[in-house]
Amino acid sequence: MFFVKGILLTNNIAVAIINEVDIYMMKINIIEANENLGSPISFEFVSNAQELDAVHENYSFDGDIIVKGEFVATGRGYRVSGQISCTKSFVCDRCLEQSSQQQVHDFDEAYQRRGQGYAEDDQDVNYFDGEQVDISPMIRDVLLSDQPLNNICNADCRGLCLKCGANLNHGDCGCDRTVIDPRLAALQQLLIKK
Ligand SMILES: [Zn+2]
Ligand SMILES: [Zn+2]
Question: What is the Å distance from ligand 1's center to 167 Cα?
């Protein structure tokens, strides 16, 4: 069973628990923000990869995904910003060892209520209906798009020996891994024959 701890904080005092019924979502009520135009309202959500559907074939997010941020009504719309903290597990592309990494991803997004009369076709704006903003699709997108192309355990990872397959992070295997350019190799042969 999953349980969303969605708590709205105002001046660091918990004032409202957001809709515990709405599991799988990170919903922020706009009413309080509207009443406090320009004043950021802090929030914190605890979720996980399964709830967020943040699934990828090359890695996974283990345990809690914590989302902390602020929500503010700007008058023309809403702004939501903050950080996502998570633990990513993967197999290193270079040494093939299982590895995990603590990550923090920043987000800063504009939201607008659909049909409010402002630029509806603005691609930089996320639209919502009603009085609640579900930020979970945006959080999922940030989490997945903010990943590096390669999963490397450590920037200094030495990878595997191309000859014997030993993990070079555990020490040198002693193989001669000098790669000679084939053209140079041909020249070398010529020189030997002479
Ligand atoms: Zn590695
Ligand atoms: Zn080797």
Answer: 8
Residue 1 domain-assigned (yes or no): no
Q: Residue 192's domain spans which residues?
A: 158-194
Mean pLDDT of the chain: 85
Tell me the ligand closest to 91's alpha carbon. Answer: 1
Tell how far the Cα of 56 is from the centroid of ligand 1, in angstroms. 19
- Both 118 and 180 in a single domain? no
**Which residue is associated with the tokens 């020189």?**
191
53 CA from centroid of ligand 1 (Å): 27
Residues 183 and 127 in one domain: no
Q: How many domains does the chain have?
A: 2
Q: How confident is the model at residue 24 (pLDDT cuts 50, 70, 90)?
A: low
- Ranges of beta strands (E only) in the chain are 7-10, 13-17, 27-29, 41-47, 59-73, 78-91, 98-113, 125-128, 132-134
How much is the pTM?
0.76
Same structural domain, 180 and 136: no
